Amino acid sequence: MATVRFLQQGEARNRTLYDLQDRVRIQGWLVPASLMPDDLADLTVQRIGVRDRLTMDLASDLLDDLRDAPQYLERLTAPMPDAGRRSAFHR
Q1: What's the whole-model pTM score?
Q2: What is residue 67's predicted lDDT score, i.e. its pLDDT?
Q3: Which of 5, 7, 58, 76 has the lowest CB atom count within 10 Å?
Q4: What residues does each domain of the chain span?
Q5: Is the domain 17-74 a CATH 3.30.200.20 member?
Q6: Which InterPro entries does the record associate with it (predicted)?
Q7: Measuring CA to CA, which residue among 20, 8, 12 is closest to residue 48?
């Protein structure tokens, strides 16, 4: 399993993993951001699950979109609105 750090803990920027989730969803990908249990409540993670039939072309497209999304979010001049925001994925 690979781990990529998108936003370091305590780093204040115009982006969150929920923003990344929203940005790649525009491209058609479902990459949910999730809060951890209470003892790690300050940590948000994203996991990508794929089917065994994922082609190299689709995997390449996903990686391209995941690389482009943070660049887009970094160019924002104000934080994304997050009033009442929560993950669209629930148990």
Answers
A1: 0.67
A2: 86
A3: 5
A4: 17-74
A5: no
A6: PyrdxlP-dep_Trfase
A7: 20
